[in-house]
Every structure is written in structure tokens, then in C-alpha cells.
Amino acid sequence: MYDNPLIMAYMGDTIYEQHIREYLIKKGISKLGELQTQSLNYVSAKSQRRHLERLENANFLTPEEIEIVKWGRNAKGPHNKSTDIVTYRLATGLETLIGKLYFNGQLDRIKEIMDFIVGEE
Questions:
Q1: Among 13, 84, 108, 115, which one carries the catalytic annotation?
Q2: Are 24 and 35 in contact (CB under 8 A)?
Q3: Number of domain units in the chain
Q4: 13 assigned to active site
Q5: Is 103 within 8 Å of 8 (Cβ atoms)?
Q6: Partner of 17 at 20 to 30 A CA spacing, among 3, 6, 45, 113?
Q7: What is the pTM for the complete model shown?
Q8: Residue 29 structural domain
């Protein structure tokens, strides 16, 4: 289980989205439609790719974390046809990192990464 990057991405997707939902609700957004609209700035594959690139450009990730991202990015699995393959795989890499950190018990590091993503670092 822990050696499958797509399983890590599956879990990471849930953890990532939970953090975003909590952030938006705590930000005071109280209308469901607005929550859904705002969440797309974070949870779509295109947004996740953009945030991953920001993390990389800021040298925010450790070398080990970059290797986990690559592990997830290079995993062969189904591809969501609503986005290009490169974007989809980069988003999967970010989700894999979050999932791997979660299963390693590194919840504080997940929070640091998510705070960076939402601009609260």
C-alpha cells in the first residue's frame, strides 16, 4: 500500500481538499456556490500544478519531498481527460507528496505546505 504512489495520491487528494475547504470556511465564505468557486483556485489540476511550481521555485520542498513528487508524477495510471497529461501528472505528484507525508505522520509539514499554498506562510 505505502509503496504505491497512486494510493498515496488518492489519500493526498482528500487531505489536500480538506485543508482547502477548512481554509475557505475559516476565511468567512458562507455560501456553498462561492466555496465551490473559490476552491477551484486550489483543487483543480491546473491550480495544483501552479502551486507545485510555486513550491519548487521558492525551494520550499526538501530534496526528499521532490523525489516523492517525481515518484507520483511518473506513476502510470488513469488520466483525467479534462486536462493535459503533464498538468495531470504534476497535480498527482503534489497529491502523492501530501499522502506520503500523511502516512509518515508528518502533519506539521503538511500544514506548512498548505499554508504556503494558501499564502499564509
A1: 13
A2: yes
A3: 1
A4: yes
A5: yes
A6: 3
A7: 0.93
A8: 5-117
